[in-house]
Every structure is written in C-alpha cells, then in structure tokens.
Amino acid sequence: MLALKIIKLSPCESCNVVSYHKCLISNREACKENTKVTPQHTNRLETSAVLLSGLCVVHCLGLPLLLAAIPALANVLALPEAVHLYIVLLALPLSLSVLAYGTCQHKSVIPLAVGAAGLLSMTVALTAKYHNDEIILSSIGAIIVAFAHINNWKRRARCVADGGI
Q: Which residue, among 104, 87, 106, 65, has the nearest Cα to 145 in the 3D structure?
C-alpha cells in the first residue's frame, strides 16, 4: 500500500543517515514488497548509468579535442546530431529509476535531486543555441549525474551493510 509521508527530518532505519525525505512508500517492509529488484540488478543498472555518463563526457570533451588535433578524422568519426537526443533519452529513465529506487532504500533524496539537476542540464543542452554552450552544459550535467549515482551507490551499500534492506 502506497502512502505519502510528510517531508521531515528523520534517520534511515538501518544506517542512521539523517536527511529530509519524502518517500512514497509508507515503510521499509512495504518498500521491499513493492520493489522486486535485487541489489545485484540495481548495481548493474547503477554501473550502466555511471558508464553512460562517462561516455557522454568523453564524447563531449574528448571527441572535439581529438578532431582538433587530427582534423582528417572528422569524416571518419562524424556522428549525427541526433546522438545527443538518444543519449538523453537513454539517460533519463535509467538514471531516474535507479536513483528513485535508491531513495526508497536509503531514504535520502539528495542523490535523486542532484541527479535530476544533472539530467536537467543535459536536457537544456539539447536546446542550446551555440555549440560551446551545449558542450559545457552536457559535460557538467553528465559529471553531476555520475556523482549522484556514485553517492546513491555508497548510500545503498551502507544501508545493505547495516542490514537495512
């Protein structure tokens, strides 16, 4: 049964991390019943999200530097502009679902909020008028999303180690 809690300052039941949170699940038992994803599966998804963020940074920063150093590669490594849209469309559901699942486990919205800010930066980059703005916004967004996933991973591991999940 889903219930909405009022945002309040409270510690995680297992790892005692104190944070403001609003969880859509009324208690930890209901959270376990409603989410049938194993920790190993979540770790794989989290790893995929971090790798996708890393690929985005390499694409945004590394590829232009490589093409500036060796201009002859421009014809070989040309990617369509739609690749940016595809990356964001892949990152949005993957990142949001893993970060939301982690929020349910460790009761801290910090990784979800930070990840959402990074995803927003990546999405805004798609509408950037100038190419340099797109590179900067996309790179910053991808780094923020990777940081959010690493933070989420650490918080989930701490709760698991303390026997909370």
A: 87
| DSSP secondary structure string for all residues of 46-99 | HHHHHHHHHHHHIIIIIHHHHHHH-GGGGTTS---THHHHHHHHHHHHHHHHHH
- Of 120, 124, 125, 111, nearest to 46 by C-alpha is 111
Angle at 60 between CA 41 and CA 102, to 5 degrees: 25
Residues 6+ apart with CB under 8 A from 45: 94, 97, 98
Per-residue pLDDT of the chain (165 residues), as tens digits, is: 333 343 444 455 554 444 444 444 444 444 454 455 677 777 888 888 888 888 888 888 888 788 788 887 777 777 777 888 888 999 999 999 999 988 988 889 999 999 999 999 999 998 877 777 888 899 999 999 999 999 998 998 888 777 655
Burial class (CB in 10 A: 0-12, 13-18, 19+), 162: middle
Whether this prediction's pTM lies above 0.85 is answered by no
* Distance (Å, whole) CA 35 – CA 32: 5
